[in-house]
Amino acid sequence: MEFSIGADGREEDIIDLFTATFTASEGRREGALIGNLVRNLLGGTAEKDLFVFTAEQDGAIIGGVLCSRLSYAQDDRSLFVLAPVAVATDQQGNGIGQKLLTHALAGLRSAGVDIAITYGDPNDYAKVGFMPISEADAQAPFKLSQPEGWLAQPLNGHEITPLQGPSRCVEALDDPVFW
């Protein structure tokens, strides 16, 4: 298995991975929603505001993590939200997700990102160092439907202190349906 940073002309393969994975786990409607989110992230997000991390095996993309900038009005720390994340259905349960997340976090760390935030299953993300946070610590761009899934990890060696001001995500994620 190889890990990469960047889409490298494989945008359609990445979109297909997310669409198929979310369709298999959540249904056709969710698959289409997340597939369109990935298309919009890849096609409409400034390069400085997006990281794409993939896992590939035998020429096929089997996992992906998209990380986009999350800004706070009165806070100059660099933050990225890891979302969405997908591992091909037939590859799940093999530790690929954890290895891919570890690869993504290392890439963000080396790029000087201070804090990684995600919104997902605390049990899954705790395995790679994420901890629950409250919206008092880091206000989400929209009301969270499952606040227990709001998680963060410092990447700069410092403890996370409350982020100051309202938050703003990239345009593709700027919809309450994702929160």
What labels would you give this structure?
eight-stranded mixed β-sheet, globular, 179 residues
Largest sheet: 8 strands, mixed
Number of helices: 4
Q: Helix-strand pattern, N to C?
A: EHHEEEHEHEEE
The outline comes out as globular
Cα distance spanning the termini: 32 Å
Which structural class do the helices and strands define?
Answer: alpha+beta
Number of strands: 8
What is the compact description of this entry?
It is built from four helices and eight strands; from the N terminus they run βααβββαβαβββ. It has helices at residues 11-26, 28-44, 96-110, 122-126; strands spanning 2-5, 50-57, 60-72, 79-87, 115-119, 131-132, 150-154, 167-169.
How would you describe this protein?
This protein has 179 residues and is of the alpha+beta class. The chain is built from four helices and eight strands. It has helices at residues 11-26, 28-44, 96-110, 122-126, and strands at residues 2-5, 50-57, 60-72, 79-87, 115-119, 131-132, 150-154, 167-169. Strands 1, 2, 3, 4, 5, 6, 7 and 8 form an eight-stranded mixed beta sheet that branches. A hairpin with a 6-residue loop joins strand 3 (60-72) and strand 4. It starts with a strand and ends in a 10-residue tail after the last strand.
Task: Describe the secondary structure blueprint for this structure.
Elements (H helix, E strand, L loop, with lengths): L1 E4 L5 H16 L1 H17 L5 E8 L2 E13 L6 E9 L8 H15 L4 E5 L2 H5 L4 E2 L17 E5 L12 E3 L10
Helix pairs in contact: 1-2
